[in-house]
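To illustrate the input format used throughout this study, we show a single complete record. The first block contains the structure-token representation of the backbone; no residue identities are included at this stage. The design step must infer an amino acid for every position from geometry alone.
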């Protein structure tokens, strides 16, 4: 009897963990699609918000622009 209760508890915990992981993955995937969609439809005003989501990308962008200005290289 105790083994059956323990088995039921383990199964419930595993199912809850799997459901939570799946929901998190789906939400992140949908958010990334939405972000991509917004950046494709409306790039100029939307680009100013990219630093909120990815500061490393903004730092990389500014470094590339600085190097291009310093060496008179025009980015494609």
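Output of the design step:
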């Amino acid at each position: 009897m105790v083994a059956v209760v323990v088995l039921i508890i383990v199964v419930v915990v595993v199912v809850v963990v799997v459901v939570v992981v799946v929901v998190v993955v789906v939400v992140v995937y949908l958010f990334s699609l939405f972000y991509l969609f917004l950046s494709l439809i409306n790039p100029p005003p939307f680009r100013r918000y990219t630093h909120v989501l990815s500061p490393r990308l903004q730092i990389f962008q500014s470094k590339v622009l600085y190097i291009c200005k310093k060496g008179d290289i025009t980015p494609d």
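Structural context for interpreting the output: The chain has two domains: 1-41, 42-76. Helices lie at 2-41, 43-46, 50-53, 55-70.
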